[in-house]
Amino acid sequence: MHAAVIGLGTHLPPRLVTNGELAARFDTSDEWITSRTGIRTRHWAEPGTATGDLATEAGLRALKSAGLAPGDIDVVVLATTTPDHPCPATAPDVASRLGLGPVPAYDIAAVCSGFLYALAIGQAQIAAQQAGTVLVIGAETYSTILNPDDRTTSVIFGDGAGAVVLAAREDTDRPGALLGTHLGSDGAHKDLIRIPAGGSRYPTTAYTPEADRYFTMEGPKVFRQAVVRMGESATTLLHRIGWVAEKVDHLVGHQANARILTALAGQLDIPVERTVVNIDRVGNTSAASVPLALAHAARQGRLTPGDRILMTAFGGGLTWGSAALTWPDITPL
C-alpha cells in the first residue's frame, strides 16, 4: 500500500504581531527585520492558548477537508517542539478532543523538520498496513519559549498549526500520492539550536538563569547548515524517485528565512519563482511551517492536481528531511 494526501487543514491564532510592534519593543525598525528575515508579520497565541488547542483545530479542519468522520482515523502523529506539558505527550489529548477514540497517538520532536519526520512515519504505518488513515499534525506555540529580551529570536518565530490526512492507496498514479521521503540528522551540532535548561541533562531549578530556559539559536551557522543539508536531502530524494529538478513544479522549503529559500532554490537549480513563500506573513512556525506553506499556495490558486511538489526542512538536532508528492484534488480548510 502507498500513502496519499487526501485532506489539509491549518489554524493560526488570531493575534497578529507586526514588525512595528516588535520594533518599538526592541528599538529596531521594520526595515531591519524585513531585510534580514523576509518577515513582516507573525501570529502569536494569547496567554492560555496551548499547542494542543492549535493542533486540535487544524486536525478538525483536515478531517473536514478529507471528508472523513473522526472514527475514520487510525493513528495520530503530532510533531512539535512546544508540547502542552513535558509529560504526557500532547497527541493523545488532541485525539481525544477530536473524538477519534482509543487510537494510537504520539508526539515526535524533530524541531523544524518535525512535520516531514511525522509524514515519513505516517507513510511507513500505511506501507506496513498498520493503518489505513493517519492524521499528521505539525503545531507550535513558539511565543511561549522565546526570550522576551532577545531580538534575534523574538522577531523570527510565530505560532500555528497544519495537518494533513494520509490514506492508503494501491497505486501512486493518482494525484496526492506521497512518492518518497528522506531524513537525516547530525547530533554533533546539537548546540546550534536548543533550549539549554529543562531536560534531564540540565534540570531547571530555582537557581537556573532565566536566559537558559528559553530557545537559543546561532543564526549564521544555522543558515549555512540549513542550505547545505536541505539541498543534499532534496537532491538525494529526487534521485531516489526519479525526478529531475527542472520538472519540480513547486519547491516548498521550511519557512525559516527568505534568504535561505532563495539560496536553496539556487543550489537545487529550481527557478526561484517556483518557490512557495509565506514567511512574510507567518514567520518561522517550525513544525507547522510546511503544511502552512502548502495551504497558502493552494489558496492562492498556485497548485493544480498532479503538480510535482518537493518539500524540504531543516531544524534543531540537527535534523533535516525532504518529501515529494503530486498535489491532490483537495480544498484546504
Give short descriptive properties of this protein.
five-stranded mixed sheet; globular; Peroxisomal Thiolase, Chain A, domain 1; 13 strands; multifunctional enzyme; fatty acid metabolism; alpha/beta; EC 2.3.1.180; single chain; cytoplasm; four-stranded mixed sheet; ACP_syn_III_C; 10 helices; 333 residues
Polypeptide structure, described:
This protein is of the alpha/beta class and 333 residues long. It has two domains: 2-169, Thiolase/Chalcone synthase (Peroxisomal Thiolase, Chain A, domain 1, 3-Layer(aba) Sandwich); 178-326, Peroxisomal Thiolase, Chain A, domain 1 (3-Layer(aba) Sandwich), CATH 3.40.47.10. 32% of the residues lie in helices and 23% in strands. The protein contains ten helices and 13 strands. It has a five-stranded mixed beta sheet with strand order 1-7-6-4-5, with helices on both faces. Strands 8-13-12-11 form a four-stranded mixed beta sheet, sandwiched between helices. A two-stranded antiparallel sheet has the order 2-3. The chain is globular and about 55 Å long. The model has no long low-confidence stretch (mean pLDDT 97).
Summarize this, please?
The protein has 333 residues and is an alpha/beta fold. The protein contains 10 helices and 13 strands.
* Cα-based radius of gyration, to the nearest Å: 19 Å
Total separate domains: 2
Strand content: 15-25%
N-end to C-end Cα span: 27 Å
Instruction: Give the CATH class of the largest domain.
Output: Alpha Beta
> Treating each run of at least 4 consecutive H or I residues as one helix, how many helices?
10
What class, by secondary structure content? Answer: alpha/beta
Oligomerization: single chain
Q: By CATH's scheme, which homologous superfamily of the largest domain applies? A: Thiolase/Chalcone synthase
